[in-house]
Amino acid sequence: MFPSAFFFLDRRLSLTSSQPHTRARGVQLLSEVLHECYGNLTEREVLIAFYENRLKDHYIITPPVLQGLRALTKCTVLPPGSAVSMLRSLFQDVHVQVRLDSVAASRFYLKIYPKKFLKGLGADFVFGFVQSMDGERDPRNLLLAFQIAKNIIHRGYDLGKFTEELFEVTSCYFPIDFTPPANDPHGITKEELIEALRAVLSGTPKFAEFLLPLIIEKLDSDVQSAKLDSLQTLTACLSQYEHKDVAEFLEGLWTSLRREVFQTSSERIESAGLAALTTLTSCLSRSVLNSDSEDSLSTFLDLVLKDCKHHLCEPDLKLVWPSAKLLQAACSASNRASHIITAAVMPSLIDQYSSRTQCSHRRTLLEVVVRFIQSVKTSQSSENEESVFSAFRESLCSMVFSALSETNSSLQITATSMLTSLAQQTGLLLDSDIELAVDHLTRLLLTEEDDRVSLAVVECAGALAALHPAAFITKLIPRLKTEIVASEQYSHHAVRQRCLSALAAVSTQPSIVRESTPVLLEVLSSAHTGNLVGFSVEEVVLACRSLQRIAEQVQDTEETGQCFHEVIIPRLLSLALQAALQGLSGFLSGCFHVVRLAGQTASRAVSLFLDGDVSFLPDNSFPSHIQLLKQGDSWSQSQMVCLLMGCVCSLPRSVEVPQIDQLLSQLEEMSCTCSHPLSYTSAAKCFAGLVNKRSQGDSLDSLIQRTTKRVCSELDSTSSPVRTQAFTLMIWVAKALLLRYHPLSTALTDKLFSLLGDADLGAMAADGFSLLMSDSADVLNRGCHADVRIMYRQRFFSENSAKLVQGFNAAPQEKKPNYLKALSNIVNKLPKQETVLLLSLLLEALLCPDQGVQLSTLSCLEPVLINPPPALIQQLEALVSRLLALICSASHGYVRIASLRCIHALSRFPEHEILPFRARVLRALARPLDDKKRLVRSEAVQARGEWFLLGSPGGR
Amino acid sequence: LVSSGGLKMSGGTRLENANPVIFQRSGERLLTASEEDEDVHDPIDDREIFDILSINDPEHPLSLEELNVVEQVRVKVNDAESTVGVEFTPTIPHCSMATLIGLSIKVKLLRSLPDRFKIDVHITPGTHASEEAVNKQLADKERVAAALENSSLLEVVNQCLSTRNI
Predict the structure, then answer these.
(1) Do A263 and B11 touch (CB under 8 A)?
(2) pLDDT tens across A310-345, in order?
(3) CB contact under 8 A, B156 and A893
(4) How far is CA A851 from the centre of its chain?
(5) Exposure winner among A39, A130, A658, B1, fewest CB in 10 A?
(6) Of A220, A222, A224, A265, which to mutate for an interface test with B (greatest number of B Cβ within 10 Å)?
(7) For residue A472, what is the DSSP state?
(8) Which tens digit of pLDDT belongs to each residue from A475-532?
């Protein structure tokens, strides 16, 4: 290629034409060529001069010229001074008024790229840029301009005397007010513009003297979003500034921030204001003090204290909280700030607390103190530093302990959270304080009747025990043990309950678990032997729950793991077996949850159930060869199968279950023949749980086919005594297979569809769909490592919705409710996009007289209404009249409530769509205002209130 | 009824009472078993009316309850005779918002109660300088109706009745 030859040839051909379009095509061609061969150009000066000259030509030619210049800037070596001259021409000759997109875009593009040459241009470049973006209104260009301005600032161009100009030309857009037009193809959002502009304005401290007055002015605005933007921009720039940048604006900033927090009507603005105050304080804290300069931090904090501190002495007035929040925001900024502020406010708060007599005042003061302690917690960086509160330790302790001894429950609750916060201040509390705290907590646990207080106490004990286990081991646990186990006459149900949950809450450290679990086991075994007077089933369950909670929360160490597998679980199984042999009930449900956690025990459990091997159980006095899976004489033994399910169905898929074929066949037998509902259901679930995890292959397929055949033949004989059992097994196996996308699931789900028309099982089949679609808590969920494919519900729905609609249309009138119920069970669990496909069927279902169908239809409609699809808006008439009919006529209160919620949700639809219904809805809603049920009335009041606001001034 | 001129509430305006005493909110009404029983008829009681009146104060982002403008003991309802009486207490004796607050309470009750109720809203005796005049205005059906024709007044009332959100 000979570029220069080509160039002259081309020029002669078209660049001298009198038609600007022809000239433009010529330049375009040249520019494209340059893009291909910029690497070996020799005539760069000539080309640059040519292009600069072309910029003066007709505006149509500008885009290809810019393209060409861009190609030239890609040259590795530009002649000295050429970049500067190119840019001069650009700024001079390209007018922003030429608003072709490509023009603007390529112009700015040009400027971002060859930055390596531009520093020499310095202030001239900035000035050129300022001139070219002045008056820009196109959001795309603005976004680009803001990005360039940010680059100019960040890459250290010399702004020279044009700092103010650059600020002016960008800040005139602040705060951004931009609503993208509907169907905007460029997708530029207000947030993008805000972020981009904020990056410019907060980019350099050089802007401080201009920006801060501007922000103070904009904070006065009535527009909430402008306030918010101003506060956030302030926060952003303060994190870059030094104290000298803000020094002269401190008073103005403080006045504005104080006003925003004192008089705010919005939580977002309040928190943005507080965040700005924190950043401002930490900006001042970063300043280095000279001997002759004043300490701007303490000057500023004096200002804050002067305006806020006295409000802390008026705990019944409104401003106590805004003042406390402001002080805490400043306090959390730095260590020095927290020292200054706490030294100023704590003495008076402590003083106030002891002199006030009204409980509500003392509680407010206590809460203020708690927030102060918490605000310091976040800023404490170095561990060995003394706590800010050390000087007040004694008074704070006596404050918290006196509050714990009060009779007022809200004071006690606040005191527990104060105790927690104090304990979290590193090195603040002494051992003796902790011991005293444990004494107080123990006393409250044993004596306090108020549920909210005991909940708070248990929570506090848990938090403290994690930090200071020793005091809990020596004091709390022995005391609780005595209370639970030993004392018979005084201890009653509620106290035991609290003790049990406290034991669980404090057991977070292995050292505590060592002490607490034996107590719980002792409770369980004494409950059994009847040693404990009045020990109820719920307490047994609670003790097991506590064990479960401990297993879940304790630090996973080898020691605790072993403790659970070797001691606790065998002991529990043994207790459960004893109970079963003695015909006691109520033990199982508790044990189940603990046993689930025990993977390693699974093989022992299998041999216990299949072979009657009891050798691993402690207190071994069982008869040998007990047969738990054989149809025995008592259901108390057969229901033990739910423990087997707990053990084997929660294993990871990689762990082999021993003797699985034998186990499966016995489970199948039991589930098809047993007459005790818990037993056959558990057997079916256990079977399903194992089938779900078996590896793919012929042995699995033949197992499924065998089971399917057996189940279907039982279901087909209407006189069979075990149809319910067969149905239960079918539905669980279907679920197990559906979850893993097994192709053989279809035979079972089709059977389920056909049962919707069955005289006896129809209603059960409809409910069965809910079981298929929902997560079950104890088996076949991800927590049990089951094989659950994503989107299995959607897949089931898309494969079967047609069958359902067909079945519905074909069914005789009296069977239709079963189909609608099945439908609502499916749709209830689906994401709402899928629901939309069935809108017309859902609307149909609203007419169904069955309450269950109405309720579940309404509950799947409500979330759809929050973000209504266009299809729904077309059916508004049908929807509104059906909902209003239900509101007035439904016999069940919950249906009326659900319909009212839907009508309420409708009030947030686009105004022009629903305004025509306003009068009708308001009339119809007058009636439920006089409903006999209060809950219905209160929903009606809310819904009617919203509909009244619709289309009314100041309403919406 | 009230001139809408003095009602501009914006960030910069001076509040009449910038630091009022605040009162604790009563907790949520506890649900009883009979309320869930479809066969039981729940009468409309004082607490229910009081809960309906969780209205925002036009000056503060606080509810009338938190400012003690409305208290449960000053709400009286008789379901059988279909009457409701509400006494409200302005935060300061010269509060210019008194009529507006009373109007908002009245409108809220009109929107929330069945037609059969006769609604009486007035100032707690002895708590406001122009108590009698305000009460008279609030009792006059025609003046209330006329006030709500005034769109700028209706706007402020609606703002008070909007659920708190920003």
Answers:
(1) yes
(2) 999 888 888 899 999 999 999 988 888 999 999 999
(3) no
(4) 34
(5) A39
(6) A265
(7) I
(8) 899 888 888 776 555 457 778 888 888 999 998 888 888 888 888 888 887 776 655 5
